[in-house]
Amino acid sequence: MEKFTTLQSRAIPLQIENVDTDQIIPARFLKATDKKGFGDNVFRDWRYKKDGSVNAEFALNNDNYSGTILVAGDNFGCGSSREHAAWALTGYGFKVVVSSFFADIFKGNALNNGLLPVQVSEGFLKELLNTIENNPETEIIVNLDAQIISVENSNVSEAFEIDSYKKTCMINGYDDIDYLLSKKTEIEAFENATSI
Amino acid sequence: MSKKTLFDKVWDAHVVDTIENGPQVLYIDKHLIHEVTSPQAFNELEDRGIPVFRPEQIVATADHNTPTQNQDQPIKDELSRKQLEQLSINCEKNNITLYQLGHKYNGIVHVMAPELGFTQPGMTMVCGDSHTSTHGAFGTIAFGIGTSQVAQVFASQCLLLTKPKSLRVSVNGKLKAGVLPKDVILYIISKLGTNSGTGYFCEYAGNVFEEMSMEGRMTVCNMSIEMGARGGMIAPDQTTFDYVEGREFAPKGEDFDKKVAYWKTLPTDEGATFDQEYFLDAADIEPMITYGTNPGMGIKITENIPTEDNASFKKSLEYMNFKAGESLINKPINFVFIGSCTNSRIEDFRVAANYIKGKQKADNVTAWLVPGSKQVEAQIIEEGLKDVFDAAGFELRQPGCSACLAMNDDKIPQGEYCVSTSNRNFEGRQGQGSRTILASPLVAAATAIAGKIIDVTQEIEELELV
Ligand code: SF4
Question: I want to staple B269 with a disulfide (CB 3.0 to 4.6 A). Which of A22, B3, B44, B327 is the partner?
Fold first, then answer.
């Protein structure tokens, strides 16, 4: 996993609530047996119209917007446990997703793939979305160490929460397997002690 | 001694270690895998040179990406075929039991595992699939995980997790005729909302669940994820023990008796507290139907679509091509799907057959019946339900996830409505541009007969009067 400390980037605003994993990556693209290529199909059915042409209205296709931060509406990532959703977002180049609420499984999947979910208040989210839409060149700064998200050259900022264990993992680029493997002795002792 | 909930008891019995100010190491008893979310986990292990730690605690099936016709022939879609071949290779290499397509135990992972007695009370179970919550019907902590976590369980039979908060939904009273477990859970989600359960593990309590069959309990727990909860649980009782007894992987003889004695200690202690509690009255529940693009957008079949002034709501209705304030009764419907891990057990097909018997499917309707497993399929034939379906013009297909997620050829065409017994009505879930209306197997069967949505409550009353 890549290390994550601080990121400064422009952001793409996605003014949609309840973005579910079927929208992030539709099921028909889940046939691969590796993690590559999902970025090409992220938000597939919103990025392209029914006739296959590009939907210019969709934020990802709007040339005004760019960057590695996705700012989305409330309740992001609900639905299936498919980690392909996280791979699709990282494959497209996103490193941070900001929303006022994340579904549990998505959040875990994101963190396991070096994609930082930043949960902010509804008020802050609104302000952020408006700021980006008014000025797409706005740069957003996400400081994981200090747990602060802010808008460059302004006093707009907010603190965000993250599990301290997960934070250490993100900063050092470790993953859970490394940790669990270091616990083999305890795990075997547990197996021997229980008859469940 | 402090009072514990069912969830506490099972969780606490599986904690291997606790990281200070961090997550816990939770031991996983059973791990279910399927073709879609496992290949990358196998790759990960292979890349890092890590062996699968406890292959005997894993069971694999092929379900998501499988055709529901001509299962004895090679799969036409190349990518699907490769994914299934990869599963076979991975299972063989790692000594994992696989019920491949066509095997008599093959089926949707959440249908076949309970059927085989793989699912038992008091266990921890995971699968790379969010509807793993289904197994909570047995008083099991069961939840969906991502592929990185699949790899973690492969490597260590454990997961790093923070204990979720506890939530209890109690439904007491008498259910009206024609109100099925599916209606109960759709009602709960419509009342509490799609993220009411986020961060929680839910327990369902009350006489409504106590009186439910295991099939019904599975339907309810299945959709816990649809209110955001990682899982749902129902306390194990005699109904549970009777269901488990004698199944392939269930403990036998003295072992079984010992287990039952332990399982009886699991129900929530009187006076235990929950972080959140809801109480609902069974008498308020009626046959339900959804009108929008998330499972919380449900109404009683006799109600009108509500009016709400927000962008998401409007976007949703626009997608469905419905108007705020209108009734769905008499809406013509061309597709009906009875299947998915929510409603593809024998009981669901009995309900449908019972209604369909002696009637004819409407000409405009394509009606697919997709059993959850080979065993359910065999039972449908054995009980003579297939004859009822054939005579009425319904199409009984072979087991799999099918039109629930439309990874295979079973897709609902662009713009068409489908009254479906599955669990998700997201945009495009059943095929690009498809419009899903979630309902019980009874409402689905009635829709297929009428060719449009009808008020089943009326018919049930009439039937009962006769
Ligand atoms: S039937 Fe649908 S919800 Fe159930 S496991 Fe298959 S795809 Fe998932």
Answer: B3
Q: What share of chain B is helix, strand, coil (3-state, %, to 5)?
A: 35, 20, 45
Of B23, B148, B311, Cβ closest to residue A175: B148
Lookup: tokens for B151? 């790899």
**In the structure encoding, which two tokens stand for residue A133, read together?**
């839409």
Whose CA is closest to B345, among B374, B313, B302, B387? B374
Q: Write phi, then psi, for B12 (nearest 5 degrees).
A: -60, -30
Strand partners, B396: B369
Strands A148-151 and A140-143: antiparallel
- Side chain identity at residue B47, one-letter code: D
Contact B430, B403 (CB under 8 A): yes
Size of interface A-B (CB pairs under 8 A): 180
Residue numbers in chain A where pLDDT is lower than 70? 195-196
Any idea which residue has 């934020």 for tokens?
A: A59
The backbone torsions φ and ψ at residue A129, rounded to the nearest 5 degrees and listed phi first, read -60, -45
Q: Which pLDDT score, from 0 to 100, does residue B457 have?
A: 87
Distance from CA of A143 to the nearest CA of B (A): 21
CB B423 less than 6 A from any atom of ligand 1: yes
Distance from the alpha carbon of residue A166 to the mean position of ligand 1, in angstroms: 30
The DSSP code sequence of A172-195 is: HT--HHHHHHTTHHHHHHHHHH--
Mean pLDDT by 10 residues, chain B (466 residues): 93 95 94 96 96 98 94 90 95 98 97 98 97 98 96 98 97 96 98 94 98 98 96 98 97 97 98 97 98 97 95 95 97 98 98 96 98 98 98 97 92 97 96 97 98 91 54
- In ligand 1, the atom with minimum distance to the C-alpha of B423 is 3
Decide: B77 and B33 in contact? Cβ < 8 Å. Answer: no
Q: Which residues contact B255 (CB under 8 A, 6 or more apart)?
A: none
How many helices (DSSP H) and strands (DSSP E) are in chain A?
A: 8, 8
In chain A, which residues have their Cβ closer than 8 Å to the Cβ of B65?
A: 30-31
Q: Which of A27, A28, A81 is nearest residue B144 as measured by Cβ atoms?
A: A81
What's the pTM value of the predicted model, to 2 decimals?
0.94
CA angle B162, B4, B23 (to 5 degrees): 10
Question: Of the candidates B365, B367, B368, B369, which has an alpha carbon nearest to the alpha carbon of residue B380?
Answer: B369
**ipTM of the shown complex:** 0.90
Dihedral pair phi/psi, residue B313, rounded to 5°? -60, -45
Put simply, whether B254 touches A (Cβ < 8 Å) is no
Question: What radius of gyration do chain B's Cα atoms show?
Answer: 21
Counting Cα atoms < 13 Å in the Cβ hemisphere of B28 gives 30
